[in-house]
Amino acid sequence: SQELEQSPQSLIVQEGKNLTINCTSSKTLYGLYWYKQKYGEGLIFLMMLQKGGEEKSHEKITAKLDEKKQQSSLHITASQPSHAGIYLCGADPTGANSKLTFGKGITLSVRP
Amino acid sequence: DAGITQSPRHKVTETGTPVTLRCHQTENHRYMYWYRQDPGHGLRLIHYSYGVKDTDKGEVSDGYSVSRSKTEDFLLTLESATSSQTSVYFCAISESERGYSGELFFGEGSRLTVL
Known about the structure:
By secondary structure, chain A is mostly beta strands.
């Protein structure tokens, strides 16, 4: 089965600092999805990456997909307290376009 | 707004009792999912459905059953709850007009405690 390894497990940054988190797949990636979860709430979709080398941005968050490395990175520029939460990556384990499996998530704290 | 409602939102029950969680959507999306979230394990897929009476197992389906007799409702049943099933359960739907998209919309979660 496909495993998604996220690193680091948790991260504490000072407001205004940049940061990068990673998601590495044990198998071929058929699309990679980033989600964010605030404490006690459901997940919210951030971005989808489907092609190697693809890069997408939403506000101050940029995600990239390295298909050869089976890895995606998510970069936050000038972090703000609103960026705090759990970031999860998800992937389709079979390419059958029917379901997502997720990594364990990265907890991000942003200190004012 | 994906219009997903989970019920109950909180439940405490005893070992050995049956429990049913309900996920209701206000539109006619085909794909629905049940996940559980636990510290150290992240989010794991229990069961999913791709249409009325069409369901399939996820990675942690043992001890759970599901039913989908109507498009709008996806029920998750624990026939005999165990303490290991204490968790937060999330329902999600895929809102794509093409039937499936990895862009899922999640409910607010149902916190289940099995004593």
